[in-house]
Automatic annotation (TrEMBL):
PANTHER family: TRANSPORTER (PTHR42948)
Subcellular location: Membrane
Stretch list, region Disordered: 502-523
Xref: InterPro entries: Na/ntran_symport (IPR000175), SNS_sf (IPR037272)
Protein name per the record: Sodium-dependent transporter
């Protein structure tokens, strides 16, 4: 039998180097939210004072959970569903839940990336004219006047760059972990850093930049007494580190048994935070210039998300010297940040399909990327695409990622009580040893914070409809998406697995493999 027809006997892929893994982990964490979400969250929650709860959240929840995901992935050398099943059979539904979440996120995350690609081109001629908002929603997205169901109104300006995005993702993932994902991140991440550093330096030379930075960094110490500020800090850390939906479990499953986990987590976590602060400096220096040009306060132009990236920044570009270059740098940064994150999201689904169906990478990549890409193109290349994206993003983040992360932590820490065992596994190979604080944070702090985030979000949800959408629209494209991911996870987990004894080895980590031997004793 030909080797390519026996994927179950192929060794599990491995990162080429620790640097390659770190670049991939950092690339996954540094995404669109770092650039357009963190600055506004910090500004609205105490400015400079926000950095204290932000640091507390990083140390007590972000890094501990990141290390936990690293440890599970490396120990079992499998995708989330198979790794959680190895932890405890009921846990496989958590893994498939996270896979479903990644599937949903990938469909619309690629859309924003496609918009950014178009705006790189728009920057040269400043095609948005004098009214960037009207251009975005009217000329470019051709958004319907009211939210509705999926429309047959084709928007070619979104379809073609979106198709290009999926072809690039397909190519990178097809090449594999080492030749595709690792090499792509070794290119995209340095390019992102270069583009963004040049952008920040340019922003700092603009008139009004100092005013913007004062608005961003001036501390409001009274905000520290507001519980919502602390919830916001934990929420930002949770979303920005790519934890809670299987990415880091998947990426760490390609590590060697002797890899330093805690040290890698510290590098990835603090690199992500450093980029967020750098993004805050660049964004608010730019907003200070916009406020000075408009004759208003910084608070009147400070925004986040799509409004910041595709309305406020184009307005800035139109009023500054050599604005086209600033636009290319900014939207180019969004493109690089988006690609590294999107690749990691889709890889979770690919790895899970590989492990579950025992198929080769080529089959899994073409099937998964093709399915996600087709759904993405059908749902978001029409005049209702923006509304569908907004509702799905809000609900899958608030009631998908957070809840799945909470269930995962409770399952490992409280149900299985496996934290001490995983702690020993990490300490055996890591330079920075984990103490009692790691178990305490994951067993107490993280579950309480995530639980409170859920309650706080639900209270706001039931008080006012998100985005002033109708209840019917939110039920169809918001709540149903979040609940659907959970239901899909449960249903897939109910499909019988062949027993572990019947499954062939998956490579170095499988039965009879050499993954537990020191590097020098492998043959």
């Amino acid at each position: 039998m030909a080797e390519h027809s026996r994927p179950q006997h192929q060794p599990r892929e491995r990162w080429g180097s620790r640097t390659g893994f770190l670049f991939a982990a950092i690339g996954s964490a540094v995404g669109l939210g770092n650039i357009w979400r963190f600055p506004a969250v910090a500004y609205e929650n105490g400015g400079g004072a926000f950095l204290l709860p932000y640091l507390a959240a990083l140390l007590t929840a972000g890094l501990p959970l990141l290390i936990l995901e690293y440890s599970v992935g490396r120990k079992y050398r499998k995708s989330p569903p198979a790794a959680f099943r190895a932890l405890g059979k009921p846990g496989q539904f958590i893994g498939w839940w996270q896979v479903a979440i990644c599937f949903v996120i990938a469909t619309y995350y690629a859309v924003i990336l496609a918009w950014a690609i178009r705006y790189v081109g728009f920057s040269f001629g400043q095609d948005w004219g004098e009214d960037p908002e009207a251009f975005l929603f009217g000329d470019f997205l051709k958004t319907a006047e009211t939210p509705g169901d999926v429309s047959d109104a084709f928007v070619g300006g979104v379809f073609w760059p979106l198709l290009a995005v999926w072809l690039v993702v397909l190519f990178v993932l097809y090449l594999g972990v080492r030749k595709g994902i690792e090499k792509a991140n070794l290119v995209f991440l340095p390019m992102l850093a270069l583009f963004f550093v040049v952008l920040v330096v340019r922003a700092l030379t603009l008139d009004g930049a100092g005013t913007g930075l004062d608005a961003f960094f001036t501390p409001d110490w009274s905000a520290l007494g507001d519980g919502s500020v602390w919830v916001a800090a934990y929420g930002q850390i949770f979303f920005s580190l790519s934890i809670g939906f299987g990415i880091m479990v998947t990426y760490s499953s390609y590590l060697g048994r002797r890899s330093d986990l805690s040290g890698s987590a510290l590098v990835a976590g603090f690199s992500n935070s450093a980029f967020e602060i750098l993004a805050g400096i660049g964004v608010f220096a730019t907003l200070g210039f916009l406020a000075a040009e408009s004759g208003v306060g910084v608070g009147e132009v400070a925004t986040d998300g799509l409004g910041l990236a595709f309305v406020a920044f184009p307005a800035v570009i139109s009023t500054m010297p050599a604005g086209w270059l600033f636009g290319v740098l900014f939207f180019g940064s969004l493109v690089f940040a988006g690609f590294t994150s999107l690749i990691s999201i889709v890889q979770v689904v690919v790895a899970s399909v590989q492990d579950r169906l025992r198929v080769g990478r080529a089959v899994a990549v073409v099937t998964v990327t093709g399915a996600i890409g087709i759904i993405s193109l059908l749902l978001f290349s029409n005049d209702n695409g923006l509304y569908l994206l907004d509702a799905a993003d809000h609900f899958i983040n608030q009631y998908g990622i957070v809840l799945a992360g909470l269930v995962f932590v409770v399952f490992v820490a409280w149900w299985l009580r496996r934290l001490p065992q995983l702690q020993q596994s990490v300490n055996a190979t890591s330079a920075v040893r984990l103490g009692w604080w790691w178990v305490a944070c994951l067993g107490v702090v993280t579950p309480l914070v995530l639980g409170w985030m859920m309650i706080d979000s639900l209270l706001a949800e039931f008080d006012t409809n998100y985005g002033d959408y109708t209840t019917g629209f939110l039920l169809r494209y918001g709540w149903s998406v979040a609940l659907g991911a959970l239901v899909v996870g449960i249903l897939i987990s109910l499909v019988p697995w062949r027993s572990d004894e019947e499954l062939p080895p998956t490579g170095p980590g499988g039965p009879g493999g050499t993954a537990d031997l020191p590097e020098g004793r492998r043959h």
